[in-house]
Write a structure and sequence with these properties.
The chain is an alpha+beta fold. Strands 2-6-4-5 form a four-stranded antiparallel sheet. The chain has a three-stranded antiparallel sheet with strand order 1-7-3. A hairpin with a 2-residue loop joins β4 and β5.
Amino acid sequence: MSANSHAVSQLLWQGPMCVGWKRDLEGAVYHLANCLLLLGFMGGSGVYGCFYLFGFLGTGYVCCVMWGWFDACGLDIILWSFLLAMACLLQLAYLIYHLRRNTLPEEFEVLYKTLCLPLQVPLQVYKEIVHCCEEQVLTLATEQTYAVEGETPINRLSLLLSGRVRVSQDGQFLHYIFPYQFMDSPEWESLQPSEEGVFQVTLTAETPCSYISWPRKSLHLLLTKERYISHLFSALLGYDISEKLYALNDKLFAKFGLCFDIRLPSLYHVLGPAASDTGPESEKDDEEAREPAMPTSAQQTPPRSPLPASAGPPAPPSRARMSRPDSGLLGEDSTSLVLEDFEEVSGSESFMDYRSDGEYMR
């Protein structure tokens, strides 16, 4: 016991006693190993920082094994360096496996950077959304229909990745769908989870297209379970529907070439197709009604009985308006509702009656 305490005190207070110093320096492998270890310990954080760290450390410990085998000839140096090198290699293998397991296809990587990364959506949440669509990318050939008006059931929600899709109703062009826009967002919002319906518009691919599609039931289960994903889809779908409505607004022009905004409350009065609904005879009657009556000597106004004191002024005649089906019908597209509003108007009002709206838009 006294001998051990004497040796410890000698190491602490007197330092090691070197019998003789080697005049020859260690080989180049030893210095290379120390340089690699130094670079390895300068690694940063994160996945790629771990790759840098364990890559240089593993290479440095392999050099230490070579130095202990050829120069130092020490079994302990070889064993310790070998164990540390194996630990670094195993850690690198785990990182590669973890990185490959979390890797998404190229289309989904681009979709995340374009649509979700600006909204700061966590990558793990995005993977749940991608897993719901089974990581499948579907395609459409040119002039191939995605949905047919009145026939295709609403049983999915799709997002266009590339190409261009034409939306039409009764053979009339409505608007285009461009990449990273939902293809059937109005239909999705028009139905409850327990309801069923069919498309009210036809969607045709004008160019070769690719898209991803979520089954209706699977997506509803995901939205019910994950509140954050539900709020995310509500924001994306609301923005997408507003873009489609403003795309329709570009096609709407009032008389004299003046463009109106769909948000104006009197827009449907101005854009009524007068010529197609009432014909020239009704236009002539409207002009005669607007002309002031000029009294003549031959004309005699019959006496009018005074109105009772209790009775107020006569109410203006209400303009008849055709009844429209309920907007909550199954599968009804919001774009078709806008067109129906314009078709229901008799068009008898004058453009000057709504001049204030035109001045507002200017």
